[in-house]
Amino acid sequence: MMHRRLVFVGLLALLGASPACANASGTYEVTACNNTPEAVNNSWDWSTTDASQPSHYAEHATCPYRSREGTGGTADQEGGLSTTDALGLATGAPPGTSAGWTFTAPAGTTVAAINYERYLGHENDTSNSWSPALRANGKIVGGETCTVTFPNVGCLLGGPPDQGGEPGIVTGLAAHQLTFGVLCQAPSEQTCVTGATEHSVWATMYGATVTVSDPTPPTLSAPSGALWAPGAYGGFHKVTEAVTTSAQDAGGGVQSITLAADGHAVATYSAACNFTFPQPCPLATGPQTLTLATSSLTDGTHTLTLVATDAAGNQSTVASKQIAIDNNPPPPPVGLVAAATQAGGSTFTATWSDPLGQVAPITAATYQVCPASGSGACSAPAAAPAEGPATVTAPGPGTWTLTVWLTNGAGNGSPANAAHTTLTVPPG
Question: What does the alpha-carbon distance between residue 107 and residue 111 come to, in Å, rounded to a whole number?
């Protein structure tokens, strides 16, 4: 299951739609642990700078959070994504070493904000050497740390979900990297005291939503395909045609490519995005083909647009093209009449006018003579000039029906759209 919070501002204005869970344009949210329905962590990585063996720091990952009583710890200290000191060590942690969970923004993006539930703290030591905190680009974020002043023995900011702790909300960041963890700030000749039966320091995160700012829109490759080429039917487009393009993005990745006609979406490619990852969508889509049933639009001129949208709602420069569509045969000829060329003869001159207001020009006419009774064979369809006249010969004495229909420049024509008149040839 994918959890996505997306923004489509320009495209939504184009398409007249609005998604759920929308942010301001140019940002997207990455969720972890309790803040995502999947209760997974795909965005924070644990690491330590302590090269000594054994490590002075311990990693805990309990996602989703559940009340936990680990060895030497409490539910607060070891639930969720947490870092603590290791227990039962003969030596303390070296000065300057650290451990914690790190979120790294994709290239070209920055972390703008974080909303998270956390528990920071450390037991009192006289030198106050432990520093549990949230750091942006290595510097402590204001208010997101824990300082213990003698004789206090602990410090709580926020708390686990089952205890109703208030989340920490930090805005106004412009960081490439966030680190949530602990740092030993002991003087060079000292160490940070680690716990014997209980942890001396902890930094625990139960759920996090990181807002990533992505200012760079995606790009579209040059479109190709019948829909973007000159009309194959006398310069007109009809039936179902396709266009192929691809998109690339340097930040959170490409979320979709949309084909619109006159501002309304008619086809969309949606990438497989997962907003539990810092880069939720693919950086490149590869060639994607979008189709349009031109019969869904009226005959006439229409404006097609292609636009790519990235994970943050940024849109590519719109690729635009005007096309002329004609899927329907012309209406029947107007004022069809047939006059005998000689009194009592079987040859007639048929005349008519072409209907006005056609998208594709009328280029030809077809006529056929059939018995008026409806029984018997008809003559083979024969071609005539688009605007007539046509010289028509009845097969013999009797009453006959002359049928005339038109064909336009897109190749559309149908006997169903015909005009009719009667031919009468006297006996003898």
Answer: 11
| Termini Cα distance of the chain | 85
Backbone φ/ψ region at 286: left (φ over 0), alpha (ψ -120 to 50), beta: left
Mean pLDDT per segment of 10 residues, for the chain of length 428 residues? 38 37 71 93 96 86 74 69 91 94 97 94 79 96 84 73 78 97 93 88 94 97 98 97 97 98 98 98 98 98 98 96 98 98 95 97 98 94 96 96 98 98 93
Residues 6+ away with beta carbon under 8 Å from 102? 44, 45, 46, 47, 177, 178, 179, 180, 181
| Angle at the Cα of 202 from the Cα atoms of 45 and 66, rounded to 5 degrees | 75
Percent helix, strand, coil in the chain, to 5, is 5, 45, 50
Write out the two tokens for 300: 């006439």
- 239, 328 in Cβ contact below 8 A? no
d(CA 192, CA 86): 11
Distance CA 215, CA 400 (A): 74
**How far is 37 from 54, CA to CA, in rounded Å?**
36
